[in-house]
Write a structure and sequence with these properties.
The chain has 146 residues and is an all-alpha fold. The protein has one domain. It is built from 6 helices and no strands. The two termini are 19 Å apart.
């Protein structure tokens, strides 16, 4: 049943982009966020890693020619690397902080890519709106919300 929120995320993300012009941080991001809606700290950690990936790409872009597919691929790789580093640092902290782990391997890169293309604030707004809609739709389908 975990694939349903991702499918709903793609559907509502497409509607959001087509009708409102709001990008949701990649088409699968709202679905993953809906799955972890009860863990807001984990969502915040994922967004922070996405922002860090965006910052790294902006810094690196001054030294390398990055555009199109190459830029997207490097964005995904940087997002993955930062996720790996983030999770590695959390393991070394003596206090268990599982709620700070990053969601998925590609989600931070997708978030960074949309923030680069559409802006940070519009992407954050789109993610919040579409993720909330996906969460509510998923809960209605499961029968949790009357």
């Amino acid at each position: 049943m975990a694939e349903l929120p991702v499918i709903l995320g793609v559907f509502f993300g497409l509607l959001s982009y087509e009708f409102l012009g709001l990008s949701a941080g990649g088409f699968v991001t709202p679905g993953y966020f809906a799955l972890f809606f009860d863990q807001p700290v984990r969502i915040a950690g994922t967004i922070l890693v996405g922002l860090a990936a965006l910052l790294v790409i902006r810094l690196v872009s001054g030294y390398f020619v990055l555009f199109g597919r190459r830029r997207f691929a490097v964005m995904m790789l940087v997002g993955f690397l930062l996720k790996y580093l983030w999770d590695s640092v959390l393991v070394t902290i003596p206090i268990p902080l599982p709620e700070l782990r990053v969601i998925g391997f590609i989600v931070p890169g997708l978030i960074a890519n949309d923030m680069e293309r559409h802006g940070v604030v519009p992407t954050l707004c789109g993610m919040a709106i579409v993720s909330s809609i996906v969460y509510l739709a998923f809960q209605l389908i499961r029968g949790v919300v009357p």
